[in-house]
């Protein structure tokens, strides 16, 4: 869906994410697991490059939720053969640099997931909550996950333009993972007129995970 129109369904989508339980299976491969197994890559909006960026951001968002993760074969390199009655995997896509880069990203995302106990622990002390005080019309989704002394926030910008959000009641923010190499600690800057407040700015169709302190 065009991001301009997607904003009208943002509250419904966020409500689905916040109600996710540990017993759920999160299909990274598809937006709608019951609908022709259409891949995230094919479901995304915009140009070829935009689709690849959105897939990275959506994979990061889903990986940040509670639940068991599943990826259909071929989706790790943004395969397009997940449509019903079409060949399951188009291995020729690995000859394309962009799809090989996607495969490297998925490998890095999996490694990040495994090295962050807060992401895959089923401890009752962990909660995933929609981040408050965000203008839902911006097509930004932010979730917080906490476990005892650790707290992280995943932010994805699903709009087609650069977007910013404010984060309050935080003394320090560290970017620990991002969908693009251009996103680092400079993406979160202290607000001059507010103590313990930061402004996070992300490019179009990008996402990042921050450790909050």
Strand and helix map with partners:
Layout: H1 3-6, H2 10-18, E1 25-27, H3 40-43, H4 48-63, E2 68-70, H5 97-114, H6 117-120, E3 127-130, E4 140-147, E5 150-157, E6 163-168, E7 173-178, E8 188-190, E9 197-202, E10 206-212
Parallel strand pairs: 1-2
Antiparallel strand pairs: 3-4, 4-5, 5-10, 6-9, 7-10, 8-9
Helix pairs in contact: 4-5
Q: What would you say this structure looks like, in words?
A:
The longest helix is centred in the middle third of the chain and has 18 residues, at 97-114. The chain has 213 residues and is α+β, with helices and mostly antiparallel strands. It has helices at 3-6, 10-18, 40-43, 48-63, 97-114, 117-120; strands at 25-27, 68-70, 127-130, 140-147, 150-157, 163-168, 173-178, 188-190, 197-202, 206-212. A hairpin with a 2-residue loop joins strand 4 and strand 5 (150-157). It has a 5-stranded antiparallel sheet with strand order 3-4-5-10-7. Strands 6-9-8 form a 3-stranded antiparallel sheet, with no helix packed on it. The chain has a two-stranded parallel sheet with strand order 1-2. It is globular. The model has no long low-confidence stretch (mean pLDDT 81). It starts with a helix and ends with a strand.
Summarize this structure as a short list of keywords or feature phrases.
213 residues, alpha+beta, five-stranded antiparallel beta sheet, three-stranded antiparallel beta sheet, 6 helices, 10 strands, globular
Quote the average pLDDT.
Answer: 81
Count of helical stretches? 6
Helix content: 25-40%
Largest sheet: 5 strands, antiparallel
Rounded to the nearest angstrom, the distance between the terminal CA atoms is 36 Å
């Amino acid at each position: 869906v065009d991001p301009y129109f997607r904003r009208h369904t943002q509250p419904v989508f966020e409500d689905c994410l916040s109600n996710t339980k540990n017993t759920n299976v999160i299909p990274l491969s598809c937006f709608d697991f019951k609908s022709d197994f259409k891949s995230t890559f094919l479901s995304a909006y915009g140009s070829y490059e935009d689709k690849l960026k959105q897939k990275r951001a959506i994979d990061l968002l889903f990986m940040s939720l509670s639940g068991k993760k599943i990826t259909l074969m071929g989706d790790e390199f943004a395969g397009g053969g997940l449509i019903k009655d079409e060949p399951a995997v188009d291995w020729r896509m690995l000859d394309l640099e962009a799809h090989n880069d996607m495969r490297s990203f998925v490998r890095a995302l999996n490694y990040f997931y495994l090295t962050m106990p807060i992401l895959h622990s089923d401890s009752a002390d962990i909660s995933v909550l929609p981040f408050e005080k965000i203008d839902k019309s911006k097509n930004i989704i932010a979730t917080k996950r906490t476990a005892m002394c650790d707290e992280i926030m995943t932010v994805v910008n699903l709009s087609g333009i650069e977007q910013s959000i404010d984060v309050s009641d935080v003394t320090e923010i560290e970017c620990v993972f991002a969908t693009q190499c251009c996103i680092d600690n400079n993406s979160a800057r202290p607000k001059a007129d507010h103590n313990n407040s930061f402004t996070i700015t992300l490019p179009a169709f990008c996402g990042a995970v921050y450790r909050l302190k």
